[in-house]
Amino acid sequence: MVAPVTIDHRSAGYSVERAYWLALASDLAYKDEAAIDAQARQWGFGTVRHHETRFTPPFPLQDTQAYTMAGNDTIVTAFRGTEPKQIKDWLSDATTPPRPGPGGTGYVHYGFAEALESIWPAVRDTHAELRGDNQRVWFTGHSLGGALAMLAGARMYLEDPRLAADGVYTYGQPRTCDHVLAEAYNKGFKDRMYRFVNNNDIVPQMPPAPAYTHVDALRYIDSHSRVREAMPMAGGLLDHAAGLTADPLAPSSDGIRDHFMRSYLTALEKNLH
Questions:
Q1: Annotation says 225 is catalytic
Q2: Percentage helix, strand, coil for the chain under 3-state DSSP, each rounded to 5
Q3: Does 263 qualify as catalytic in the annotation?
Q4: pTM for the whole thing?
Q5: What is the CATH number of domain 16-269?
Q6: Residue 132: CB partners within 8 Å, gap ≥ 6?
Q7: Contact 108/118 with Cβ under 8 angstroms?
Q8: In this structure, what are the phi and psi dihedrals at residue 126, rounded to the nearest 5 degrees?
Q9: What are the residue ranges of helices labelled H in 94-178?
Q10: How distant, in Å, are the alpha carbons of 39, 43, 45, 82, 159 from that of 69?
């Protein structure tokens, strides 16, 4: 399947079709500005803003990148992720301290908090400029971008609930916050947050619990590429094992292979009607 050339800008609520399209938007965040502009226009968005900043700790010389595309009915901000090996190295550093969460609620992984802080003024000001009363607002991202999308939604909601996004869709998102922020987020984003995890993707398993946890609304993609809203523990263990046998020559690579954005897109395409 090729990227759709038309998007239903007025639809709301959860659907696999929206999950697929926002996954495409997350993938687009890895492209250059010209490619983003061209695709946004093809999708029917008249305005695009690009956001990019640099910061040092704890990720040396790391770019934080995102883009916002806006139309008459919809605004989407997509945050760029990073390479699986890089984020694995960052998240395995147990010495990184947490930081207070948005609105002083709970705690957040320091690196994610710093990354969002570096780009938030540009995102906030863009939404203030482009957002009207009738537009639906979506945040999305893959990997590190998923963590930033979730935190952007939390920040907007906790700082001014009237500005809460209509939905947040993430793909391969790492654990991002503590239980206090997760519970506040689950309450504020009930039926609006959807966190997709592809089988044995290693990144959602980091940083280690219980210091950090996930928000709710998991959508698990099983070893047969089916999107499931729930997976019993026993069935989940068997399915993870099935995923490990997909490549008998390199079973240990499954956690990285399942994390690639292309793997998420391929799986979601199979669930489209």
A1: no
A2: 40, 20, 35
A3: no
A4: 0.89
A5: 3.40.50.1820
A6: none
A7: no
A8: -65, -45
A9: 110-130, 144-159
A10: 10, 10, 6, 21, 22
* Residue range 119-161, pLDDT digits in tens: 999 999 999 999 987 899 999 999 999 999 999 999 999 988 8
Query: What is the helix (H) or strand (E) element at residue 257, kind and residue range?
Result: helix 254-257
Return the DSSP state at 177: B
N-to-C CA span, the chain: 12
- What does the angle CA 82 – CA 174 – CA 100 come to, to the nearest 5 degrees? 105
The one catalytic residue among 27, 118, 178, 201: 201
Residue type for position 20: Y
Neighbours of 156 (CB within 10 A): 23
DSSP-assigned letter for residue 162: G
Q: What is the 3-state secondary structure (H, E, C) of 7-61?
A: CCCCCCCCCHHHHHHHHHHHHHCCCCHHHHHHHHHHCCCCEEEEEEEEECCCCCC
User: In whole angstroms, what is the distance from residue 268 CA to residue 21 CA?
Assistant: 9
Q: Which of 26, 118, 143, 263 is catalytic?
A: 143
Nearest one of 26, 45, 65, 48 to 129, comparing CA atoms: 48
Q: Dump strand ranges (E) for 162-261.
A: 167-171, 193-198, 218-221, 227-228
Which tens digits make up the pLDDT trace of 173-196? 999 999 999 999 999 999 999 999
Residue 83 to residue 163: CA distance in whole angstroms? 32
Domain boundaries in the chain?
16-269
φ, ψ of residue 223 in degrees (nearest 5): -70, -10
94-118 pLDDT, tens per residue?
556 789 999 899 999 988 888 899 9
pLDDT of 56 strictly over 90 = no
C-beta separation of 128 from 121 below 8 A: no
